[in-house]
TrEMBL record:
Superkingdom, natural source: Bacteria
The organism of origin for this protein: Evansella alkalicola
Protein name, UniProt field: CarD family transcriptional regulator
InterPro entries: CarD-like/TRCF_RID, CarD-like/TRCF_RID_sf, CarD-like_C, CarD-like_regulator, CarD_C
Domain CarD-like/TRCF RNAP-interacting: 1-113
Transmembrane annotation, as ranges: none
Skewed-composition ranges (Basic and acidic residues): 80-92
One Pfam family of this chain: CarD_C
Disordered, as annotated region: 71-92
Amino acid sequence: MFKVGDHVVYPYHGAGTIQDIEEKDILGEKLNYFVVFFPLNHVTLMLPENRVKTSGLRKIIQPKQIDELATALKPTESSTSKKDAARPYSKENETLLKSGDIMDAAMVISNLTSKEGERTNGLHMEDRKNLDRAKQFIVSELMLVNDLSEEEAYQFITDNSKGA
């Protein structure tokens, strides 16, 4: 399973490090809790060991997957009609972000970057929020995978999400 020092990703929170495994007595039942610190947003989470499998907690991607991530960030060719381009896809994007998969977050960035380029007045508020969440999610993981600064990780996203 996981051990202290492992870099992990928790869906919708991003990447962090397991700092400790604590045993707690809750209502007479002893449970082990993973204590995970998320450096980008300075949050500490305690996750019960018996909920790890269903929580979506996973190890961060391997450095060799960075090229795949860069490709996934590229804007997609859009085939949406003008009517569809105006419709916010916040529910679909939120579902992708909640999956905890870095490639799903890259898809959100790719789709919204393409959509942003098509619209003269920018993205809807929910789309902007989802774009920011997706970027933050990926940045948190890139910081731990490649030992990048926050600025370098954001620059990686910017460089790879530009149109061809």
